Amino acid sequence: MRIEELEQFPAVRRIGYRDALVWQASVDRDRYFKLAKTIKAADGRLAALWGSDNIFAGDTSPSRFSVHALFYVQVHEKFIVKSGLLWVSVPVAEWPDNTFPTLGGIFPAAVRMERAVYDLLGLRAEGHLADRRPWLRHGAWPADQFPLRKDFPSPKTFPNTPDEYPIIQVHGEGVHSIPVGPVHAGIIEPGHFRFQVGGEKILRLEERLGYTHKGIEKRFEGMNFIAGVRLAGRVSGDSTVAHSFAYAMAVENLTESEIPPRAQWLRALCLERERVANHLGDLGALGNDAGLAFGLAQFSRLKEGLLRQNDRIFGHRYLMDMVIPGGLAKDLDSSGAGLIRQEINTLLPEIGRLQEIYEEHAGLRDRLATTGQVTPDLAARLGLMGVAGRASGQGWDLRVQLPTPPYHELDVKMATHQDGDVDARVTVRFEELREALRLQSEILTRLPPGEINAPLRPARPYACGLGWAESWRGEIYTWVRADDNNRIDRCHPQDPSWVLWPALEYAVLGDIVPDFPLINKSFNLSYSGHDL
Q1: Which of 4, 289, 453, 474 has minimal Cβ neighbours within 10 Å of its Cβ?
Q2: What are the distances in angstroms from CA 115 to CA 29, 144, 146, 252?
Q3: Are 369 and 359 in contact (CB under 8 A)?
Q4: Beta bridge partners of residue 126, listed in sequence order
Q5: For residue 100, which of 115, 81, 85 has the smallest C-alpha distance?
Q6: Is pLDDT of 3 > 70?
Q7: Rounded to 10 degrees, what is the CA torsion of 488, 264, 49, 236?
Q8: Is residue 439 in some structural domain?
């Protein structure tokens, strides 16, 4: 897509995000749909979709609501390909029908996001691929009540009522269903998986999520910006640094506040430590699910050592509440830096030896190779990103294409593979582990002196800000809008699990039911980050 093609749509304008390319557009229904098709044709993809209630003090607009879509785009500017974000808003009138065009036929990941918009705001996606089944409600509130509307009586509880949810059936001789969940044998959050199988071969998988819906977006309303980061850090506990990072960036952008350079570098250090901890845990769990308990024992030992080191240096095993708007909550001293350097020198050879074992173990190879395959072509159509996307040939990493300080000064080596199976997702994790350790070492070498936080400026009434971070799982985007009292009017955090959960339904096709836990673990998606 050329810059001129993007800017041919009325109201598209560049907005200031330091060196990042970010555009904003307010368009009508027809242009919203046409713009989405143009972006798809230029190999762009949908990053997030959400809705908002626009009741402002003194607002008289007939379009009380808006639906917002965030697109990742690649544009040509003076013969150079650059990556950017396009935030598009389409007004939705309260009368007569509260509808907007579905993007499900263009971007498959939009379908569940649009269903959530209806459950929470009562805005209906219309089109031949629109799905009218509820997604988050589960009978927890009446069908004519919408919790994210400003006039919703909160806090309020309703009697839980059974809801009808027809599962799409596969018909044929010898085909039967296997329901799994939502309550599982392990200590995990609830999710329902309905397998349609012929023998043991999976013909179709349909997921149903939303059981852990917590009302996080409603809880953000009226919070001050500092208090809000504590909630953002608990959207998905395994990505607490990344969610806090994206939220803090959004707040700093909407308040036009700068943070000290030292805080920028320490944020990146925390983000890479979170990446290492989760990849270590995943590699152990994947070995265990494939019958190699030795892998679980060794990687659990390494992860536990890192978490104890976090607690020793920063005061929290998972670095919760470290990132705050304006900077960082705690500094790193010279002794802490020395401990991290020792840890890096210890981890690198151990990880290398464990990778050799994983690659040479015949039984493990038999389970991992060709299992749970998502081809690069399918991955592109589904908009995969993060570890799962890079393992299927999708070369997207926000640290590379949309780097926030200090990543614009770090030469991040992106790990990509073409096979798209469990084995490729394991290999990407190993490569990202080594790269995250290398980045930590470079950050410690180049860490500037100075303060670690700065005060925020007051927010302009109804100013908006975007923030993003490449978490260990994939891309996180956060959108924050201020009210007229320097507080949060609306906050939408988008976990990568929203895009990645639907892909799991495709990854299992043709495999056998006993391989599902292994395939599922190779994605390792968040229920909590999805359900909000």
Answers
A1: 4
A2: 18, 14, 12, 30
A3: no
A4: 101
A5: 115
A6: no
A7: -80
A8: no
What pLDDT was estimated at residue 57? Answer: 53
Longest C-alpha distance within the chain, in Å? 70
Residues 6+ positions from 151 with CB-CB distance below 8 Å: 55
Question: By three-state DSSP, how is residue 393 classified?
Answer: coil
Q: What is the pLDDT of residue 76?
A: 76
Same domain, 193 and 86: no
Structural tokens at position 338: 């020395």
> Side-chain half-sphere of 299: how many Cα atoms within 13 Å?
27
**Residue 178 shares a structural domain with residue 105:** no
Number of H helices, E strands in the chain: 17, 15
Whether 9 is covered by a domain: the verdict is yes
Residues 120 and 181 in one domain: no
Instruction: Report which of 6, 202, 143, 159 is spatially closest to residue 88, judged by C-alpha positions.
Output: 6
Range 32-36 contact pairs with CB under 8 angstroms and sequence separation of 24 or more: 32/69, 32/88, 32/90, 32/100, 32/101, 33/101, 33/103, 34/9, 35/9, 35/88, 36/69, 36/71, 36/88, 36/103, 36/106, 36/107
Q: Which residues face 75 on adjacent strands? A: 82
Residues 51 and 68 reside in one and the same domain: yes
Taking the model in full, what pTM does it have? 0.95
Least confident of 182-191, 480-489, 511-520: 182-191
Residue 89 sits in the same domain as residue 198: no
**Can you give the residue range of the structural domain that contains 76?**
3-165
Element (DSSP H or E) covering residue 500: helix 497-507
8-48: per-residue pLDDT in tens?
666 667 776 667 788 888 888 888 999 999 899 888 999 99
Convert 71-83 to b/e letters by CB count within 10 Å (16 or more is b): bbbbbeeeeeeeb
Do 35 and 128 belong to one domain?
Answer: yes
3-state secondary structure (DSSP) of residue 148? coil
Sole residue written with tokens 């059936």: 169
Q: Quick one: residue 302, left, alpha or beta (phi over 0 = left, psi -120 to 50 = alpha)? A: alpha
At residue 95, the pLDDT reads 62
In this structure, the answer to whether residues 105 and 69 fall within a common structural domain is: yes
SS3 63: coil
The mean of the pLDDT values for the chain is: 92
Q: Both 205 and 82 in a single domain?
A: no
Where a domain ends, among 165, 186, 219?
Answer: 165
Q: Which residue has the tokens 């009017």?
A: 489
Is residue 341 within 8 A of residue 444, CB to CB? The reply is: yes
Banded pLDDT at 78 (limits 50, 70, 90) = low
Is 243 in a helix, a strand, or coil?
Answer: helix
Tokens coding 502: 């639907």
- φ/ψ of 261, rounded to 5, equals -55, -40
Query: Please, which pLDDT band fits residue 75 given cuts at 50, 70 and 90?
Result: confident
> Which pair of tokens denotes residue 37?
């098709």
